[in-house]
Amino acid sequence: MAIFEMGIIKNGVLIFSKTFYPLDADVKTRARDQNLRSQILSSIIHFANNCLSTEVEYFVMRKYQIAIASQQVIVRGGKNFVVAYVIGDSDLEVEIVNESLERVLSNFIEKYQNEWGIVENTAKYSAFEKILFDIFGDLHYRPSDRVRKLFNT
Hints:
Beta-Lactamase, 4 helices, 5 strands, about 25% strand
């Protein structure tokens, strides 16, 4: 199991992301792809919630799995739909990752919801990376990197 990328989306806009391992995308298109991913994920989750009255927990694809946690947050009278996602390999243990992802989302909302604006300065979220690592521990490592880390410390 390995986690390639983790992101947090607010109202369809990617506001925080961390890449652990690159996906098969070209470096030049990676940022554009992250924004596209966030918009598509938000659309699918909204569709499931509003039209099908159900929640999306994860997607399974040939090479990847995407785990999802979402929450609607009301701040200063405005509704904000916040989604945390993880893109992992095909061996991703969704139940384990979802537990951590829920904690990541709750911590992020608790820490930053009073700082949200209409237009986001995403640089202010960079300090969240430490909290992310504290919650995920070694979950994001590939098995070979976990073993390597054991013997290098």
